[in-house]
Amino acid sequence: MQLASAGSTRNVRSPWWARLLYMAIVACMVQGAGGLSSHVADPAIAHLSWLAGCWRQEASGRTVDEVWMAPAGDAIFGMSRTVAKDRAVAHEFMQIRSGADGLVFVARPSGQAEATFRLVKSGARELVFENPTHDFPQRIIYRLPSPDALVGRIEGTEQGRARGIDFPMRRVACH
Questions:
Q1: Has this prediction a pTM greater than 0.90?
Q2: Confidence of residue 39 (pLDDT cuts 50, 70, 90)
Q3: Residues 106, 82 contacting (CB under 8 angstroms)
Q4: Domain count of the chain?
Q5: Could you report the per-residue pLDDT of 94-148, keeping only the tens digit for each?
Q6: Residue 1: inside a domain, yes or no?
Q7: Closest CA relative to residue 70, chosen from 28, 133, 132, 119
Q8: Mean pLDDT of 153-165
Q9: Which residue range forms the structural domain that includes residue 15?
């Protein structure tokens, strides 16, 4: 990007998260216009096309939007944003990629360190990732019970107690 200032120009590089946001928006626009036609090199990633799209959960005065780009190459990228009282209060950047030991889910939530979870179970419309050494959650699950419904779930133990949280989402138009 070029910025002009007092007759001169200088190069300014956008932060990584702004570039990812831009790519996700463009992918959703293209998908909404008839689908993304791209070469998918990794068959394991290609099978995750059911996750691609824009998803929303509205509950308890909060709106959570989660966007997943179409799979391409060896990865599928996603992000989420939580808004409460007209304020973005949380975000997360996510990726599912092929690793040396199979698929991994990499999460980078706002205010927390990046964490990686290995795929331990998969079905036609289900993914289960685990990292037993992570604080909470130790398990991340995505299920597609119908074409317009996605359920994200996190599970694990916290302070010695079993805990699970569901995030039921509906498909929405990508803007």
A1: no
A2: low
A3: no
A4: 1
A5: 999 998 889 999 999 999 999 999 999 999 999 999 999 999 999 999 999 999 9
A6: no
A7: 28
A8: 96
A9: 9-172
The whole-angstrom separation of Cα 175 and Cα 171 is 12
106 to 59, 82, 120, 145: CA distances (angstroms): 26, 19, 14, 23
For residue 4, being part of any structural domain is answered with no
Q: Is residue 2 included in any domain, yes or no?
A: no
Handedness of CA 18, 175, 170, 41 (dihedral sign): negative
Q: What's the one-letter identity of residue 39?
A: H
Residue 3 in any domain: the answer is no
Angle at the Cα of 175 (from 21 to 35), degrees rounded to 5?
A: 85
The letter for the amino acid at 125 is: R
165 contact partners, CB below 8 Å, separation of at least 6: 137, 153, 154, 155
The pLDDT confidence band at residue 12, using thresholds 50, 70 and 90, is: very low
Write down the H helix ranges in 9-166: 16-32, 43-46
Tell me the CATH number at 109: 2.40.128.20
* Whether the Cβ atoms of residue 45 and residue 97 lie closer than 8 Å to each other: yes
